[in-house]
């Protein structure tokens, strides 16, 4: 699809050479196209060059859509001037215009998320507040201590921020097809915040971009089709806020030192499980972390609202750790399966893999 669109840009551009040829050369084309002056003919040539440059920018991931929007406007004016013979050029112009607007919208959406992510890292690196108590570790349930020691987290410096890359598959309904995705995520561990940015590919034509976040105790989820049309836009309600907090609590498995922060309290259940309670801005959520005998985290389970509407129901949200990998000396679950344990059946909706992870980063992924 990518190369087909580039070919369309080139072919459509080449066709504009006919207007240039009519103005500057004596050819049979002059019998097919209305008379064109040399200044207008030169404009046809510039339009041809601009379409070729746009195709090159598109293939090299430059900000091609700005030039595309301008050249489509000029092209359409030229087509209108020679409407009888050039009117069918409106069709490729329309296609290019739609793709350009979608790409521009996606770019602006990603720019918004990048600004939010930059603020996350800024808040983490600029903070002088340390809400880790020296007594926190000794007060942990024994299995949680074993987990932190086994992971290697206790051998490293304080983690104030995290950035990571993910890939995997997701689906929106039990009957939906799996969609592949890639995502970047940034955490401010000190203030218990995150921003998650994803690009979902349903097929070669349809794609979605999305953002999930937790900042100052407030969650927000926004997913757009082609970067333009909101598919999900939920924020500023109890269901979304608590859901984002539960997600953060579960994802502390990627930076275990978060377990020592004062915003999380622990209660032992038995020899291999413990309940964690996360409090922020007068809102409290909790979930159960389960471990094996060696101290590896094997699952997380919590009651979470199934959906973001005010009438959403609480359902069991279950995360199963599939495999482990060491990043910068800390062993974490790098592959996980996420399942909604609904009343009638289980809905496995997400499979995720951590492909890259950095602790205490100072900038976004490039």
Distinctive features:
366 residues, alpha+beta, outer membrane lipoprotein receptor (LolB), chain A, 2 domains, 13-stranded antiparallel sheet, 8 helices, 35% helix, elongated
Molecular structure report:
Helices cover 35% and strands 34% of the residues. By secondary structure, it is of the alpha+beta class. It has two domains: 2-101, no CATH class; 132-359, outer membrane lipoprotein receptor (LolB), chain A (Clam), CATH 2.50.20. It has a 13-stranded antiparallel beta sheet, sandwiched between helices. β2 (179-188) and β3 (193-201) form a beta hairpin. The longest helix has 37 residues, at 90-126. The relative contact order is 0.11.
The biggest beta sheet reads: 13 strands, antiparallel
Tally of strands: 13
Order of helices and strands: HHHHHHHEEEEEEHEEEEEEE
CATH topology of the largest domain: outer membrane lipoprotein receptor (LolB), chain A
N- and C-termini, Cα separation: 25 Å
Mean pLDDT figure:
89
Number of domains: 2
Order of strands, main sheet, comes to 6-5-4-3-2-1-13-12-11-10-9-8-7
SSE diagram, text form:
Blueprint: H1 2-15, H2 17-24, H3 38-59, H4 64-81, H5 83-86, H6 90-126, H7 142-151, E1 161-170, E2 179-188, E3 193-201, E4 207-215, E5 218-225, E6 229-235, H8 238-251, E7 264-270, E8 273-280, E9 283-291, E10 297-305, E11 314-327, E12 330-341, E13 346-359
Antiparallel strand pairs: 1-2, 1-13, 2-3, 3-4, 4-5, 5-6, 7-8, 8-9, 9-10, 10-11, 11-12, 12-13
Helix pairs in contact: 1-3, 2-3, 3-4, 4-6
